[in-house]
Amino acid sequence: MMIRRLLVLVVGLLSSVSAIAAAPDEETFESLTVGTNVYSKVTVLNKTRVDLFISHSKGMVNLKVKDLDPSMQVRLGYQVEQPKPSKVDQVLKVANVQQVQEQLEADPHYQEMEALFADRLGDAIEKFDDRAAHIVVGVITFVYLLFCFLCRCICVKTGNPPSLYIWLPLLKQIPLFKAAGMSPWWILSNFVPILPLVAYIIWCFKIVKTRRKHVLFAVMLLLPLTNLLAFLYLALSGDGSERSPSSRGVISLGTAPRRAAA
Prior knowledge:
4-stranded antiparallel β-sheet; 4 strands; 262 residues; alpha+beta; 10 helices
């Protein structure tokens, strides 16, 4: 440690001598901030590629160039590498969205396609009369009632006959939670972010366990497309505990017992 301090002192003295010799070209600053340290009345004594030796109001110190602010590095004559632009910036630089939009709007083919789309959309809206609206409403109502019926089947097959809540939006979750052995208070999770997803994941595994099905169906309930198949299976399949066929009508192949002689 002593040797290192002596070297720093020697370098500082030599730098001071050279700085005095080149006094007209020395660099001075009122203050210099490096991290949490602030140096006042700073004079640059020596500069290298990685080090900066300065004197200040309280003595001398050796600083690392990489610890300086980029603006200060530029003032001291260092070359600062500009940060690489992100992919988004590169895309925006290559193709300006506003310029592309202006070019599309000026393109006659684009204008023709836009006009054609507007005409077809207008025709579709005009054809959408009261009859079509009634059909759409009827289909939506039928799909909703079918969904409620399937939910009721799941509840019944778990031994928990549902109440009228099963036919009402949102409130249908109460009998479904009960069917899975969960507290009906889980319905309050709908009003807290992220909790509805947590409640649904727990429900999937618990309802599959209650229905005595393989855990694979719980995973299927969590995935798109397969969730519909798994839901139909839970609603329409048996619970695997059906009784074996009655022995009524089965013919025995054994020898009939002989009657005792009179």
